[in-house]
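Pair request: fold both.
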Amino acid sequence: MSQIDRLRLPDDDPTFGGNRIFDLFQYSPAVTANGMVFIAGQIGLRADGTIPESPSEQADLAFQRIQSILAHLGLDFTDLVELVTYHVDVGADLKDFRAVKEKYIRSDFPAWTILGVAALARPELAIEIKAVAATRAR
């Protein structure tokens, strides 16, 4: 039988501003099971709930959110094993997205799937990033 742990963020988390959005939509930012961490899709949302217009800034915020989740679990980007990115305009945004991605993921590259989508949860969103990481042996 596996141990399943659901991440609950501190209420004063500077990246997320707490758990309000997770409670509202009834999901966890990350779930750990069988040595794997499944990180819910992260968007370019600021802690105050606003979304920047620039897809590059949205990508940067989404990576910051993933970085924060990983840090809460004692992990970092080298622990990622899979990355799935969703792009409303993959053709126009991929070059800038890659430049942002390279700021965060510099080595130990995860598997990466790039998907073009018609829309995301809010009309102003341009990208979403889902990730899977492996926990470290303790």
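--- second member of the pair ---
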Amino acid sequence: MSTWMVVEDEPDIYEVLLAMFEMWGIEGVAFVDGEEAAAWIDDVDTGRFQGELPELALLDIRLPGNISGPMVGERLRKSPVLGQVAIVLSTAYKLSLDEENKVKEQAGADKLMYKPLPKFNELQRVLEEVIALRRQKIVPQAPEPKLPERNGTERKSPERK
């Protein structure tokens, strides 16, 4: 079973997300603030947590306390265990393009989504697409095979479309 992580301070939102995950056959792990999430990441890194690890983290940008969603993402990217998790930031606040780029860069985020989040099936499709794209970044692509030239030298195969 896949596991997805949610860091969201609004109980109504994280409860709905966890219920959706369950309907999709995904286990959810939720945190209500950045400090709680960062402490869990530390537990994972030090081996104190031995359960299923998430392949996706859905992080609210603005959280109570001193650790924001982008800071949680930054901490995830530094983790030797969780560093390749897909990260999606979410916010209800309108950000300028510069602000969007800044928070995505800080978090190492794969995507930024505005609330309200997409409906049930669309949200699942978007999140699974982000995971698939993240996996492609992790797994190095095999080099294209080389075909022999008529004169005995090698050439690359034609690009596929």
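Observation on the second member. The two ends are 34 Å apart (CA to CA).
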